[in-house]
Amino acid sequence: MSASIDSNGVDSLSAIRLFLDAAALGSFSAAGRKQGLSPAAASACIQRLEAGLKTRLFERTTRQLRLTEEGRHYRHYSEQALALMAEAEAGLQAQGAVRGLVKISAPSDFGRNLLLGWLEEFRLLHPDVQYALSLSDSTSDLVQDDIDLAVRYGLLPDSDMVARPLRPNRRVVCAAPALLERCGVPQHPEQLAGLPALVLVTASGPMHEWRYLEDEARRTVRVQRSHQSNDGEVIRKWALAGQGFAYKSLLDIEDDLRAGRLQTVLDGYFRESVPLNLLYRRSRLSRRASPCWWNSCWRAARGLECCVRAA
What we know:
This protein is an alpha/beta fold. It contains 9 helices and 15 strands. It has helices at residues 12-25, 28-35, 39-53, 69-93, 108-125, 177-183, 232-240, 250-259, 290-310, and strands spanning 58-60, 65-67, 100-106, 129-135, 149-153, 161-167, 171-175, 197-202, 205-206, 209-214, 217-222, 225-229, 245-249, 263-265, 276-281. Strand 8 and strand 9 form a beta hairpin. Mean pLDDT is 80; it is low at 1-9 and 300-311.
């Protein structure tokens, strides 16, 4: 992307940033103030951008400013382009000393059992990086909670987030062998409704509707809550103790499955993909630590995959 300069001294990258600010704030004046431009200069800059693209990016009325279909298309690719440039700059800067505080959010059992090892690997390489680690099974608001990076299963319903895939994953139903011997092995997901179940409770409510696939159609079964907790690690420990069936991410219980402490059931039904992703908001991308931290996570994830395949 070339950074040409127009007659008013505004380069093309600044014009794109102004366009994105105007789209987010709904006002040329507000976007101009953020970029240090007068309302007239900001409006003229957007007009020159539209003229160069030969398309209208905004619908202008006396009451509101909103993107056209072409504007939404241009915003999508502009955000990606600026994010990539930020990562490129960060990668160059990170070749030197990497330091600073990184605020991370992750699911509770994943954070305790796997993420801590990844962070330790990275700490040995970059001892000047500090972590503020928040473990919760509720979806974090990356802006409200002031989070730099979130590790989550699946994608969050937010178009302003960048997702980096770390590992494939799916959710499974599992139980301790003693429970299966006592209650029997269910042959269809609907049978789970009459069996003891361990339910994770998040900020959105109890996860007591377990999703499965049958004849390629998505279905759910509502389970009875024998025990419930807002901590995924507690759910896992209850499952190990034979207290009920649990709906868990496969990655969280792989060691338990290999050791025979837990067994999965109904694998032909519970096969929906829920990949493990590293999420960050473009505006929060750290220019020093985040890309290196992600690279460390990626190397650790690839190493973990090799261990799983070899097991």
